[in-house]
Design goal:
The complex is a heterodimer. Chain A is mainly α. Chain A is built from 20 helices and 5 strands. Chain A is 71% helix and 3% strand. Chain A has a 3-stranded antiparallel sheet with strand order 4-3-5. Chain A has a two-stranded antiparallel ribbon with strand order 1-2. In chain A, helix 3 crosses helix 20 and helix 5 packs parallel to helix 11. The longest helix of chain A has 33 residues. Chain A is globular, with a radius of gyration of 22 Å. Chain B is mainly alpha-helical. Chain B has one domain. The longest helix of chain B is centred in the middle third of the chain and has 34 residues. Chain B contains 21 helices and 2 strands. A two-stranded antiparallel sheet of chain B has the order 1-2. Classes of the chains: A mainly alpha, B mainly alpha. Chains A and B meet through helix 17, helix 18 and helix 20 of A and helix 5, helix 6 and helix 7 of B.
């Protein structure tokens, strides 16, 4: 007789909320009347994420392994789940914005209609909205939250697919510049499939070496024989698969194209939430399964961190499109995050985990804010993403420019913004664990990266506005809420970060 | 009265003032100016009161307040001043109202509002006070970086034609230095963590650390590079002529008069006491940079045709003297160096202001476009001469006292460097007097001195937005507002030249304490 695995439903409440909302969303899509579908879908998706967020807070302090040992509900998982749910809710609000685009949505009405066909031209001006994105995004959020809690490589792989597949779809659903968007989706899908294959192959090798997919058993095997070639090779392949999702160079080549092609709200979602999820999984894999044999991955991560920071910072300099620029910025930030990952000390201590989690939160909030500002600046053909179009924005719309400047300064890591606190935390963790050369490289890379953030500020503030420049749209309530929350928290986490740092510190616990 | 949190107020008042000014509705520029001037005068008053409350013979750091800020990092919002910081605060207090007065009638470039300019000035003042008053290294770093932002916007929004380039160059240079310092700051924290069992950034605790020589050298270099860029010492100086010449005059005065002093202040406050062994080890190299800077910048200054660039280069030369005084490791020279920091702020501040007033009249920054101005504007010429003479350290002006102290204090321990540095004084006389002579005397040049073709109307603000030189040089003498702006500085030049004792009394005990940290006590040790 097969015994059902033990399931602690209370500990799984955050996941149940989001997946429940996603399933209800599918039903609404199938049976709900068209005219009510949009508000209902938005409400359901938001309820799911907010419910998940609240229930993670209520679970704070839980340390439990459940679902037959496949899921770990611990401080780190809950902190990251709360971060994903919160950032996911903000992204959903951006999805729901209807005042900016003249056609009332950033998403294509019918994704299956070929670009340029008569039907496509007909739909281009229609105000019909497409609401499948909400359940899809809910599934992605659920997958991400599962990803950071998985205590088992198989669950991790399932979660990886659950979060990836909806993302491939929704990044191809831009209403404008559809070909670019579809190209992005195909690229993301193909490369993502490769990465999944790497992960799966690594999983197989690790299973071959250790006879288990549980992180705890893998650790035990690593303690017994850490030099096993199969095990180390498997680890390397697993890490490649995860680094791909985290858009770390040299596994980053999809990032600029996908960020640029995807609808901007989706880009914001990917930049913030996928990053959190991927790093959550990297941390769990490295710290729980391979924490005792850190010498196997430390040099690898060390080198990759440097490559990612340098590639992101240097290639970011040459970009002329804001979304691409932010994509390279995201690659550089992935490198900074890896310096936090390095901050695990041999004795298992060190502030690396707490620092990385704080950084993820700070970066997620700032980057969603920055992409939200991008959706405001528009010309006749949708968003005006080219740098030159932002010249003189400050004299046209001082508030928009000021908010954008705040986000850019935060991304550059200027003190009194969230970005600085995060950088300080991860660099401290790295230096404490003896990796000061890495921290110095990271500091120099931040100086290089600062240049391209500053260039946008220079354009907005110190340049003459172009005669036929873009207009700054009047955002509806959802975008206003997102901007208010992200701007306030970006400042607050810079000026009074104490409480959140403390929270991250207390949450920095893995069971396993 | 004496237990008012002066330092906190000196940060809070201008910061709040900046927010108020920035929040004023469009078109209320006059109100913005009045509020800004009022706020800056309040800060000056607070600085004076703080000086009165300061007990010269008392503790090293006084007027101290400390609140835990980020417990997780061990950071406190800790403020306190020694004599050195106090005189810098007085300088901030004096220069900001003067700068606001000098910018009163400026017309902003294009469609910008002066309101924003004054808001940035006040915010900058708050940050500058913070950077001198912080006694927590993390807090110091935060102010150090944060003060770049207002200055960046001041240069970038209100500067001359190449302002974008200058603003970015300024910001990036300082940011790179700051980030290298950040690595060292974290390094200090880690050392304190291993030695004290608990990481801290408190200056007093860090001073007690026993850091191994190798680590000391690395950390020293981290701090040193940041300060050498800010000061700036010679190989790190190339941003200053660009920023100094492109910044609006008010911004240039604060940039050279105060911001750059953060570098030399940092040497004294952080490099010497925290890393005494490394300081002694690196002192000869720093002195080479200092003396090379004195001569090299002076030579470059002579070659400049742009007046603002010239003044910027003279400052680099003067910073060489200050660095010489600091790294000679004698109390006399150190005291001289601190006094030099104050005096240079006053003298070069006045020089920049007068040059700005001249540029506002002539519309050109080029020396070659002027000549014979003294005949038309004797007051302008007089103040120009006074500022120039103070800048070349003529006896009777304030700079003489400090330069003399630096040289006489450095000679016993570093005779060779001192003798070479003395050549700088001669060069200073050359570059200042040549500029004065070419612009103020001699025949009017290139038809520029013809009477204005149309009556001069409107204000003649001091913002040097260089446009193509107008073919008529509108030379009117100083207005009453301009007189009110330059007179206090001119008076300070004379007063401090004749009677510097009160400032010396404030500075000396703190310098002595610093020098004893680094293991140098008397004036004659080597």
């Amino acid at each position: 007789m097969i015994e059902a695995p033990d399931l602690s439903l209370a500990a799984l409440a955050p996941l149940l909320f989001v997946f429940g909302a996603a399933c209800i969303g599918v039903l609404v899509e199938a049976f709900g009347p068209r005219e009510y579908r949009h508000p209902v879908q938005v409400a359901v998706a938001l309820l799911g994420t907010v419910g998940a967020f609240v229930s993670t807070l209520r679970l704070a302090g839980t340390r439990e392994i459940t679902a037959g040992g496949a899921l770990a509900v611990d401080g780190a998982a809950l902190f990251l789940q709360a971060t994903i749910a919160g950032l996911g809710a903000l992204s959903l609000l951006l999805f729901a914005e209807r005042s900016l685009d003249p056609a009332r949505s950033a998403f294509v009405t019918s994704a299956a209609v070929p670009v340029g066909s008569p039907r496509d031209r007909e739909l281009a001006t229609s105000e019909q909205v497409q609401t499948e994105v909400y359940p899809l995004a809910s599934f992605a959020i659920g997958g991400m939250m599962l990803f950071v809690a998985s205590n088992d490589l198989l669950i991790m792989f399932v979660a990886l697919e659950v979060l990836s597949l909806p993302l491939y779809l929704i990044s191809g659903m831009a209403r404008r510049r559809r070909l670019l968007s579809q190209e992005a989706a195909v690229k993301y899908f193909l490369l993502g499939a490769f990465a999944s294959a790497f992960f799966l192959y690594g999983l197989a090798l690790v299973y071959g070496a250790t006879g288990s997919v549980r992180l705890r058993d893998i650790r035990a095997a690593a303690v017994a024989d850490g030099t096993d070639v199969l095990l180390v090779l498997g680890l390397a392949l697993l890490v490649v698969g995860l680094l791909f999702k985290a858009s770390v160079a040299p596994f980053h080549s999809w990032t600029p194209d996908v960020y640029q092609g995807a609808p901007t709200p989706v880009t914001a979602f990917m930049a913030a939430c996928t990053k959190v999820a991927a790093f959550g999984a990297i941390l769990r894999l490295l710290y729980v399964a391979f924490g005792t044999s850190e010498w196997t991955w430390r040099p690898l991560i060390y080198g990759i961190a440097i490559v990612s920071m340098v590639v992101g910072a240097v290639l970011g300099l040459t970009q002329t499109d804001l979304k691409r620029m932010l994509a390279y910025s995201s690659i550089a930030h992935a490198g900074f995050l890896l310096t936090g990952v390095i901050g695990l000390q041999a004795d298992g201590g060190g502030s690396g985990l707490a620092a990385t989690m704080f950084y993820l939160l700070a970066y997620g909030l700032t980057t969603i804010g920055a992409f939200a500002v991008l959706t405001l600046v528009r010309d006749g053909d949708g968003e005006a993403g080219h740098l030159s179009q932002w010249a003189g924005l400050a004299s046209r719309s001082p508030l928009t420019a000021a908010v954008m400047a705040l986000f850019l300064l935060a991304l550059a890591g200027i003190p009194l913004t969230a970005g600085f606190t995060g950088k300080f935390a991860v660099f401290r963790a790295a230096i404490e664990s003896g990796a000061w050369p890495l921290a110095v490289v990271a500091l120099l890379a931040s100086a290089v990266a600062a240049f391209f953030y500053l260039r946008v500020i220079v354009l907005m503030y110190f340049s003459q506005p172009a005669a036929d420049g873009p207009t700054v749209g009047v955002p509806g309530l959802p975008t206003v809420i997102v901007l208010a929350i992200t701007a306030t928290t970006t400042l607050a986490l810079g000026i009074v970060p104490g409480a959140v740092l403390d929270l991250a510190d207390r949450a920095a616990i893995f069971v396993g | 009265m004496s237990d008012l949190p002066f330092l906190l107020l000196m940060i809070a008042v201008p910061a709040v003032g900046a927010a108020v000014v920035a929040g004023l509705p469009k078109g209320r520029d006059l109100l913005a100016k009045q509020i800004s001037l009022g706020v800056s005068l309040v800060v000056l008053l607070l600085a004076v009161l703080a000086t009165v409350a300061f007990d010269v013979g008392g503790d090293r750091f006084q007027l101290a307040t400390s609140v835990t800020w980020i417990a997780d990092f061990g950071v406190s919002f800790a403020l306190g001043v020694d004599g050195i910081a106090l005189v810098m605060l007085l300088l901030v207090g004096v220069l900001v109202p003067v700068v606001i007065g000098a910018s009163w009638d400026d017309t902003p470039p294009q469609d910008r509002s002066m309101k924003a300019y004054f808001a940035w000035l006040l915010l900058l003042e708050a940050m500058m006070v913070g950077v001198f008053a912080a006694t927590d290294v993390f807090l110091f770093y935060v102010f150090f970086e944060a003060m770049l932002v207002p200055m960046y916007f001041i240069i970038g929004s209100f500067g001359g034609p190449r302002r974008q380039y200058a603003a970015v160059k300024f910001f990036l240079y300082s940011l790179v230095g700051g980030l290298i310092m950040l690595a060292a700051v974290i390094g200090l924290y880690v050392v304190s963590n291993s030695q004290l069992g608990e990481g801290t950034f408190a200056f007093d605790a860090l001073r007690q650390l026993e850091i191994t020589p190798g680590v000391q050298k690395l950390l020293f270099l981290g701090f040193f590079v940041a300060f050498a860029i800010m000061a700036p010492l010679v190989p790190f100086h190339t941003w200053l002529p660009d920023s100094g010449s492109e910044a609006p005059i008010g911004g240039a005065v604060l940039l050279v008069g105060i911001l750059d002093k953060v570098g030399t202040f940092g040497f004294l406050r952080y490099c010497l006491p925290l890393f005494p062994d490394a300081s002694r080890y690196f002192a000869p190299y720093v002195l080479v940079l200092a003396v090379a800077g004195i001569l090299y910048a002076a030579l470059l200054a002579m070659g400049q045709s742009d007046m603002k660039r010239l003044v910027s280069y003279t400052s680099i030369s003067h910073f060489g003297f200050i660095a010489l005084g600091i790294f000679a490791f004698t109390t006399e020279a150190g005291t001289g160096a601190v006094l030099y920091m104050v005096n240079h702020g006053i003298a070069t501040g006045l020089l920049f202001l007068v040059v700005g007033m001249l540029i506002a009249r002539g519309g050109s920054r080029s020396i070659g476009d002027y000549g014979g101005v003294a005949a038309k504007a004797p007051l302008l010429a007089g103040f120009f001469l006074l500022a120039g003479l103070a800048s070349l350290a003529l006896p009777g002006t304030n700079s003489f006292v400090s330069e003399f102290l630096v040289l006489i204090g450095s000679f016993p321990s570093r005779p060779v460097f001192t003798i070479i540095a003395t050549v700088g004084i001669i060069l200073a006389a050359l570059y200042i007097l040549l500029m004065y002579q070419r612009t103020m005397h001699g025949p009017p040049r290139g038809g520029l001195m013809s009477e204005p073709r149309e009556p001069v109307t409107g204000g003649h603000g001091a913002t040097a937005v260089a446009t193509a030189p107008s073919r008529t040089l509108r030379v009117t003498d100083l207005s009453r507002r301009e007189l009110a702006v330059v007179t206090p500085l001119a008076a300070l030049i004379i007063v401090l030249g004749v009677y510097p004792q009160p400032l010396l009394d404030l500075i000396e005990p703190s310098v002595q304490a610093t020098m004893s940290d680094v293991g140098a006590t008397g004036g004659t040790d080597r």
